Give the backbone structure.
Amino acid sequence: MTPELLLWYLTAQYYPRYHRSSVVLSGLLRTSIPAKVMGGGMATLTTRLLACGAVAGPFYLVVGLAQAFTRPGFDISRHDLSVLSNGALGWIQIANFVITGVLVVAGAAGIRRALRSGPARRWGPLLIAIYGAGLIGAGFFTADPVAGFPPGTPASAVEVSWHGLLHLVSAAVGFLALISACVLFARRFAWLGERAWAAFSAAAGAAFLAGFLALVFVQGDTPGTSGGAAILGFWVALALVWSWLSALSARLMVEAAHAQVEDL
């Protein structure tokens, strides 16, 4: 779905009083589009940037999981997603890191443009952009082979290279930035009196922090690896925090459309 159709659908769902009925997607999707907006280029720069933020998480998870379940030798309960950057097909995960990072940075720019006042207006988008930059860094600086992956790697391999170290640093900085962004947006939504969104933001940040700490401190049977429960828990936390970022971007797309309609 293009940014234009996504935005039309969201505005139709949440702000129907500003719309008149129209049939799109060959009659399969019924939504409403303001006549002036339709003719005036509804997909603004802010909307397109926010759309990047909305799709970043699903893109990352789909590409990552597709590799996790198809690449020989990879065990989702033993290996971090980062080690997929190794081997003949390592370029796929490298591209996944870089493309997702660019999408997150673009989404952060859209969030900055969409927030007009209140807490987290400046630091929230900046911290999300730092997370995106961390993903890009994690792509450029590949993780080291570990625990038998890729095939041919000794099960006891624990050597840390300079690029492996920079990968860990990039990831850690990005994770902490995103956790901090969740906290700031929890404060923002509490200030707005939106308890559900405040709780969602706080829960996403807390879960991601817990998952990150578990990766660091819960060791697996193989030296240099995290425990299986810690890795699987991190996957759950990662899905939650990506869902939060996608939901936040989609929400701001709706608000941006609402503000644009009111300005017509």
Q: What stands out?
A: The chain has eight helices and two strands. The first strand starts at residue 21 and ends at 24. The first helix runs from residue 3 to 14.
